[in-house]
Amino acid sequence: MLLRIVKYFVLIVSEPIVRVTLNVLCRLQGFRTTRVNNWVFRGPPDFIRLVNEAEKRLRSEDYGVLRATAGHCTVMYSPRRTFTFLPWKYAGISRDFLAWGCEGIVAAWVYFTYKWKSAQKGRWFFTDVRRSLHESREVRARTKEWLTQHGFPVELREAFNADSGSGRRT
User: Fold this and answer.
1) pTM for this entry
2) 134 in a structural domain
3) What element of type H or E holds 16?
Protein backbone atom coordinates (compact mmCIF):
# COMPACT_ATOMS: atom_id res chain seq x y z
CA MET A 1 0.00 0.00 0.00
CA LEU A 2 2.81 2.41 0.85
CA LEU A 3 4.46 1.73 -2.51
CA ARG A 4 1.22 2.63 -4.33
CA ILE A 5 0.96 5.88 -2.38
CA VAL A 6 4.57 6.78 -3.25
CA LYS A 7 3.96 6.00 -6.95
CA TYR A 8 0.85 8.15 -6.92
CA PHE A 9 2.77 11.03 -5.31
CA VAL A 10 5.51 10.77 -7.96
CA LEU A 11 2.84 10.88 -10.69
CA ILE A 12 1.33 14.04 -9.25
CA VAL A 13 4.68 15.78 -8.91
CA SER A 14 5.95 14.85 -12.38
CA GLU A 15 2.75 15.64 -14.31
CA PRO A 16 3.46 19.35 -14.95
CA ILE A 17 6.90 18.49 -16.35
CA VAL A 18 5.46 15.88 -18.69
CA ARG A 19 2.62 18.21 -19.75
CA VAL A 20 5.05 20.99 -20.72
CA THR A 21 7.32 18.52 -22.54
CA LEU A 22 4.40 17.07 -24.51
CA ASN A 23 3.18 20.55 -25.44
CA VAL A 24 6.63 21.43 -26.80
CA LEU A 25 6.88 18.13 -28.71
CA CYS A 26 3.43 18.64 -30.22
CA ARG A 27 4.39 22.12 -31.40
CA LEU A 28 7.66 20.88 -32.87
CA GLN A 29 5.71 18.28 -34.86
CA GLY A 30 3.41 20.98 -36.22
CA PHE A 31 0.36 19.61 -34.41
CA ARG A 32 -2.74 21.76 -34.32
CA THR A 33 -5.01 22.09 -31.28
CA THR A 34 -8.76 22.17 -30.88
CA ARG A 35 -10.83 22.25 -27.72
CA VAL A 36 -14.17 20.60 -27.03
CA ASN A 37 -15.42 21.74 -23.65
CA ASN A 38 -12.44 20.94 -21.40
CA TRP A 39 -10.92 18.30 -23.66
CA VAL A 40 -7.93 19.39 -25.70
CA PHE A 41 -7.16 17.52 -28.92
CA ARG A 42 -3.70 17.79 -30.53
CA GLY A 43 -2.62 16.37 -33.82
CA PRO A 44 -1.97 16.95 -37.50
CA PRO A 45 -4.55 18.94 -39.52
CA ASP A 46 -6.38 15.80 -40.77
CA PHE A 47 -6.74 14.54 -37.21
CA ILE A 48 -8.16 17.88 -36.04
CA ARG A 49 -10.58 17.91 -38.99
CA LEU A 50 -11.84 14.45 -37.99
CA VAL A 51 -12.18 15.53 -34.35
CA ASN A 52 -14.36 18.45 -35.45
CA GLU A 53 -16.51 16.09 -37.55
CA ALA A 54 -16.76 13.69 -34.60
CA GLU A 55 -17.87 16.52 -32.32
CA LYS A 56 -20.69 17.40 -34.74
CA ARG A 57 -21.75 13.77 -34.96
CA LEU A 58 -21.75 13.32 -31.18
CA ARG A 59 -23.66 16.57 -30.76
CA SER A 60 -26.43 15.19 -32.96
CA GLU A 61 -26.37 11.52 -31.84
CA ASP A 62 -25.53 11.55 -28.14
CA TYR A 63 -25.03 14.90 -26.48
CA GLY A 64 -24.43 13.10 -23.18
CA VAL A 65 -21.00 12.00 -24.39
CA LEU A 66 -20.11 15.63 -25.10
CA ARG A 67 -21.40 16.72 -21.70
CA ALA A 68 -19.02 14.17 -20.17
CA THR A 69 -16.10 16.20 -21.57
CA ALA A 70 -16.56 18.72 -18.76
CA GLY A 71 -13.50 17.36 -16.93
CA HIS A 72 -9.99 18.04 -18.22
CA CYS A 73 -8.44 15.59 -20.69
CA THR A 74 -5.77 15.82 -23.38
CA VAL A 75 -6.18 13.58 -26.42
CA MET A 76 -3.43 13.46 -28.99
CA TYR A 77 -2.63 11.72 -32.21
CA SER A 78 -0.44 8.73 -31.40
CA PRO A 79 0.58 6.98 -34.63
CA ARG A 80 1.44 3.57 -33.19
CA ARG A 81 -1.09 2.84 -30.48
CA THR A 82 -4.23 4.00 -28.78
CA PHE A 83 -3.66 4.57 -25.07
CA THR A 84 -5.09 6.05 -21.91
CA PHE A 85 -3.09 7.28 -18.98
CA LEU A 86 -5.61 7.77 -16.22
CA PRO A 87 -3.51 9.60 -13.61
CA TRP A 88 -3.00 12.60 -15.88
CA LYS A 89 -6.06 12.14 -18.09
CA TYR A 90 -4.05 11.71 -21.26
CA ALA A 91 -5.17 9.63 -24.20
CA GLY A 92 -3.91 8.89 -27.67
CA ILE A 93 -5.73 7.87 -30.83
CA SER A 94 -3.72 5.69 -33.22
CA ARG A 95 -3.67 5.70 -37.00
CA ASP A 96 -5.67 2.45 -36.85
CA PHE A 97 -8.66 4.43 -35.56
CA LEU A 98 -7.95 7.28 -37.98
CA ALA A 99 -8.30 4.79 -40.85
CA TRP A 100 -12.01 4.67 -39.93
CA GLY A 101 -12.33 8.44 -40.35
CA CYS A 102 -14.88 10.24 -38.23
CA GLU A 103 -16.34 6.94 -36.99
CA GLY A 104 -12.96 5.89 -35.60
CA ILE A 105 -12.58 9.16 -33.70
CA VAL A 106 -16.10 8.84 -32.30
CA ALA A 107 -15.42 5.24 -31.21
CA ALA A 108 -12.21 6.23 -29.40
CA TRP A 109 -13.95 9.26 -27.86
CA VAL A 110 -16.77 7.13 -26.47
CA TYR A 111 -14.22 4.63 -25.12
CA PHE A 112 -12.22 7.38 -23.39
CA THR A 113 -15.40 8.85 -21.91
CA TYR A 114 -16.40 5.50 -20.39
CA LYS A 115 -12.82 4.92 -19.24
CA TRP A 116 -12.75 8.22 -17.32
CA LYS A 117 -16.17 7.55 -15.81
CA SER A 118 -14.97 4.13 -14.69
CA ALA A 119 -11.88 5.66 -13.07
CA GLN A 120 -14.06 8.12 -11.15
CA LYS A 121 -15.99 5.28 -9.50
CA GLY A 122 -13.33 4.72 -6.92
CA ARG A 123 -9.79 5.30 -5.94
CA TRP A 124 -8.36 3.43 -8.94
CA PHE A 125 -4.73 3.89 -7.85
CA PHE A 126 -5.35 1.72 -4.80
CA THR A 127 -7.24 -1.07 -6.61
CA ASP A 128 -5.91 -4.50 -7.37
CA VAL A 129 -5.08 -5.75 -10.86
CA ARG A 130 -8.14 -8.03 -11.11
CA ARG A 131 -10.53 -5.16 -10.45
CA SER A 132 -8.72 -3.02 -12.99
CA LEU A 133 -8.95 -5.74 -15.64
CA HIS A 134 -12.64 -6.20 -14.87
CA GLU A 135 -13.22 -2.45 -15.29
CA SER A 136 -11.35 -2.48 -18.62
CA ARG A 137 -13.55 -5.31 -19.93
CA GLU A 138 -16.64 -3.46 -18.74
CA VAL A 139 -15.55 -0.26 -20.49
CA ARG A 140 -14.94 -2.15 -23.74
CA ALA A 141 -18.33 -3.84 -23.48
CA ARG A 142 -20.12 -0.51 -22.86
CA THR A 143 -18.29 1.07 -25.79
CA LYS A 144 -19.18 -1.81 -28.09
CA GLU A 145 -22.81 -1.59 -26.96
CA TRP A 146 -22.89 2.16 -27.70
CA LEU A 147 -21.37 1.61 -31.15
CA THR A 148 -23.94 -1.11 -31.87
CA GLN A 149 -26.84 1.13 -30.81
CA HIS A 150 -25.59 3.86 -33.14
CA GLY A 151 -25.07 1.60 -36.16
CA PHE A 152 -21.28 1.59 -36.41
CA PRO A 153 -19.64 -1.05 -38.65
CA VAL A 154 -19.21 -4.52 -37.16
CA GLU A 155 -15.47 -4.49 -37.85
CA LEU A 156 -15.01 -1.31 -35.81
CA ARG A 157 -17.15 -2.66 -32.97
CA GLU A 158 -14.95 -5.79 -32.88
CA ALA A 159 -11.99 -3.61 -31.87
CA PHE A 160 -13.67 -3.46 -28.46
CA ASN A 161 -13.96 -7.21 -27.87
CA ALA A 162 -12.58 -8.32 -24.50
CA ASP A 163 -9.41 -9.74 -26.08
CA SER A 164 -8.89 -6.90 -28.54
CA GLY A 165 -8.19 -3.19 -28.50
CA SER A 166 -6.28 -2.23 -31.59
CA GLY A 167 -8.94 -0.53 -33.68
CA ARG A 168 -7.23 -1.98 -36.74
CA ARG A 169 -9.28 -1.89 -39.91
CA THR A 170 -9.20 -5.12 -41.85
Assistant:
1) 0.80
2) yes
3) helix 2-28
